[in-house]
Amino acid sequence: MPEMPEVQGLVDFLGERVVGRTITRTSVAAIAALKTYDPPNTALHGAVISGASRRGKFIVLSCGDDLHLVFHLAKAGWLRWYETLPTTIIKPGKTPIALRVALDDGSGFDLTEAGTKKSLAVYVVRDPAEVPGIARLGPDPLDDAFTREVFAGLLDGKRTQIKGLLRDQAVIAGIGNAYSDEILHAARMSPYAIAATLDDAAIDSLFAAMQATLREALAEASGKPPAELKDAKRRGMQVHARRGETCPVCGDTVRSVFFADRSLEYCPTCQTGGKMLADRRLSRLLK
C-alpha cells in the first residue's frame, strides 16, 4: 500500500508535469471507483490544473479553488504515467485501469488497481474537505506544528496498542502498515505496547524514530518516477516484509504476526526483549 512517502513522491512527480496543463478527457473504467457525481467527472474536461498536493495518503489535483480531482490508491492501486498516452480504448471490466486522465500535450496517466478486492477511490469535488476520508484525517506527522508535545497529547489516555494507533488515520495522517513497522523497530518498541503507558523516554524515542524514518523515506522517494517508487520503498525497509531475514541491527531473525488481511513484522531482540509474539489475531506476548 502506498503510504505518505510514496504518495508525496507521486505528488512531486505530478506537480512537475501536470501543473499548467489542461485536462482534455477523463475516462472512468471502474464505475465503483468514482465516489462522487456532483460535479460530474466531465467537469474536469477543459480545466487547467493549478496545483498538486497531498492530504495524508490522498492526492489532490486542483483546478482552481473550486474543482479538485482527489484519489486514494488504497491497498493495491498505483499511478501509471505516460509521456504519450495510449490511444487504445479502455474496456470496463477487462483492464486493471480504473481511471484515465488525458492532458493537452498528449501525456497523461492511468490509475490502476490489481487484485479482486477493489478499494481505489476517486472523487471530483469543489473542496477536498468534502471527501470523508480527508475530513477525518489527523495531523500530518511532518508538519512543523506536529511537535513532540502534540504527539504526546495524542497518546495520552489511549488504551490501544501503539501499532494500531500509528496506523489510525484519524490520529496521525499518512502512516500505514509498513512504516509503522519501521518506526517501531527504529524505536525498539513492541507493536503491542499500550500508548497510554509509554513514559517520557519512550515517547521521545518513538517521536524521534517517526520523524527520522519518514524523512529518510521521503528523501529516498524524492525525484523518482512512479515506476521506481515501489522498489525504493522495499529497499529501505529494515523489517517490514522481511520475515525470515536477518535484522540489520542485531542479527536476530525478523518475525511476523499474521492477521486476516495483513501482517506485521518485528525483531524479537530489538523490540520485545527476545520474546516471540503469538501468531494469532488479538496476539499477546507468549509467557
TrEMBL record:
InterPro entries: DNA_glyclase_Znf_dom_DNA_BS, FPG_cat, FPG_N, H2TH_FPG, Ribosomal_uS13-like_H2TH, Znf_DNA_glyclase/AP_lyase, Znf_FPG/IleRS
Keywords: DNA damage, DNA repair, DNA-binding, Glycosidase, Hydrolase, Lyase, Metal-binding, Multifunctional enzyme, Zinc, Zinc-finger
Domain FPG-type: 238-272
Keyword Hydrolase in record: yes
Formamidopyrimidine-DNA glycosylase catalytic domain residues: 2-120
Pfam families associated with the record: Fapy_DNA_glyco (PF01149), H2TH (PF06831), zf-FPG_IleRS (PF06827)
Entry-linked SMART domains: Fapy_DNA_glyco, H2TH
Origin superkingdom: Bacteria
Cofactors demanded by this protein: Zn(2+)
Keyword Lipid metabolism among record annotations: no
Reaction equation(s) it catalyzes: Hydrolysis of DNA containing ring-opened 7-methylguanine residues, releasing 2,6-diamino-4-hydroxy-5-(N-methyl)formamidopyrimidine; 2'-deoxyribonucleotide-(2'-deoxyribose 5'-phosphate)-2'-deoxyribonucleotide-DNA = a 3'-end 2'-deoxyribonucleotide-(2,3-dehydro-2,3-deoxyribose 5'-phosphate)-DNA + a 5'-end 5'-phospho-2'-deoxyribonucleoside-DNA + H(+)
Family of this protein: Belongs to the FPG family.
Protein name from the UniProt record: Fpg/Nei family DNA glycosylase
Organism, as annotated: Microbacterium galbinum
